[in-house]
Amino acid sequence: MNTNQPTSDLNYDVLIIGSGAAGLALALNLPSDTNIAVLSKSDLNEGSTWYAQGGIAAVMDDNDSVESHVTDTLRAGAGLCHKDSVEFTISHSTAAIKWLIDLGVDFTRRKDKGDYHLTREGGHSKRRIIHSADATGKAVHTTLLEKVSAAENITLYDHYIALDLVQQIDPASKKLRCAGAYVYNHRTDSVEAFTAKSVVLATGGASKVYLYSSNPDGASGDGIAMAWRAGCRIANMEFNQFHPTCLYHPKAKSFLITEAVRGEGGKLRLPNGERFMDNFHELGELAPRDVVARAIDHEMKRLGSDCIYLDISHKSPSFIASHFPTVQKECARYGIDITKEAIPVVPAAHYTCGGVVVDKNGQTDLQNLYAIGETSFTGLHGANRMASNSLLECIVFAQSAAKTISEKTQTILPLEAIPQWDESRVTNSDEDVVISHNWDELRRFMWDYVGIVRTQKRLERASHRIKLLQKEIHEYYSNCKVGNDLIELRNLAMVAELIIRSAMQRKESRGLHYSMDYPERAEIARDTIIVPTNFAAQDIIVHHG
Length: 545
Hints:
The protein is α/β, with parallel strands linked by helices. The protein has 15 helices and 19 strands. The strands form four sheets. Strands 1, 2, 3, 7, 8, 9, 10 and 17 form an eight-stranded mixed β-sheet that branches. Strands 18-16-11-19 form a four-stranded mixed β-sheet, covered by helices on one side. A hairpin with a 6-residue loop joins strand 8 (160-169) and strand 9 (176-185). The longest helix has 24 residues, at 456-479. The radius of gyration is 22 Å and the shape is globular. It starts with a strand and ends in a 15-residue tail after the last strand.
């Protein structure tokens, strides 16, 4: 493994943009003679995978079945899941977990029997969440990174953020193909050109478009924005999942209280101690996340309360310490003893259910460009992602994409040299306050107007504001030298526009999209597909149903 050792021409077989579970799993599933570059925009452990607490949903018990997991996923997706994609993902779930176990991921076992402990989360009818205490993402990511670091054919580049994809005409098909990317090197404050036969977008989601988010700072929708600018279709961006329970404390930054707390008996309570979830859904605290988030939002607004409370204190201290050590430790930092008192929580933007349209191999509309993980739209999540299906999707589609890429790599015709980045007409900005002001304004109006509950009037206000912001950002981007904040702001603004456009097109309430103007669900379930004006790539049809 090489770390930050650029070759003279930065020419690779495969360029993977993103170093979370999806990107690293794909790198490990490619043949060992494949020359691979993996880009991380920050530290290698700063992606969403590292912070994922709950676990991975998979069929691991004799009392469970693929059919049951499929049924639960379809139900949670509110009629918009692509059944073929759901069946494909879940039928590969057991093999995906076995691959992680074989790599050395230390999943939690039951002390009495020695087999793997499976927990239950919202929307699941069975205990099928395999986990590593309450820090599953960290366990998975640590193992994947350890294996990637030991691979001689993989070069890791940290603090590199991709700006845009590079396209060329393929000599064989005469169609546009992806041939690499321009990438900003934060350490040298310069832009470098990476050439690759195949490029994979594994950049995660776009939850940082909202003021309150459970995601790390890097979740700025970079892959979605780059794919859109390259002419790829984007689907179902109106479905933004708000995790119901993030720790509410003035000094706590985006700390998520895992869904497993409710799965193991945690109760949601009003400030006066009263439970309320039974008034909203027959499953109470185990209702799907969209229902729980809206219920909390409703009660907070009804009462004028800053938060509600999640109570697991009725469980024994030993149970809490063994099941939720991370949550217990983090809450204790702020003076909250979860063995004796309830946890103050609020909803926060958590997961982007839409993304770049792909097929079962992760192939996008642009030849040689792939998207996997939260960046992609596979049809698995529908209108509402069911808990712990996301890491599963990362592994399953990383493996299927790797198979396709390895089969095609040898047949890809030579690429042309990529022109160097031209900075001859830009200047250093002395007004970085513009970036910070626009960043704050964007995230605030998205939270206020395009949040958990929406109206057409709010969406129209958001649409007007995003157009003004984008004009300002474009002018700044065209005249000033790029940097991390400007790159992310440009991408967030693009993703915000796609979310707003998608939400305005959906004249119903379904799953994560709730409109006060259209409270009923339409009889026919349809995806929202946004098509760029320059759409002229190879034909890929993602069938619904």
